[in-house]
Amino acid sequence: MSTLPPCPQCQSEFTYEDGALYVCPECAHEWPIKPAEAEEDSGKVWRDAAGNILQDGDTVTVIKDLKLKGGGGVVKIGTKVKNIRLVDGDHDIDCKIDGFGQMGLKTEFVKKV
């Protein structure tokens, strides 16, 4: 017996897989094997030090003095960082901090405002 779903348009039970799609031979309807929503939900979730979910464009506050490598100074506790961008890698946040420029931060050292 087939475990493939019936066609959502004509309810035909003769559907088959063709790459990343299901195809109905009776009405020629095609639909994705995995819904787009399931692919988005499987992505990584970034959380701040308090456990709040972070998103691109959020504003965060630094919760610890951070010494910059290369003798660039210190980012003080309470520094507000606007319009963050979340990335995969060693540092989770790409941002610009006034007076310091472009840099990467880890989510464990910030709190969502």
From TrEMBL:
Residue span, Protein YjdM N-terminal domain: 3-32
Annotated Protein YjdM C-terminal domain ranges read 47-113
Q: Which NCBIfam families match?
A: phnA
The family annotation for this protein states: Belongs to the YjdM family.
Q: What is this protein called?
A: Alkylphosphonate utilization protein
Which organism's genome codes for this protein?
Herbaspirillum hiltneri N3
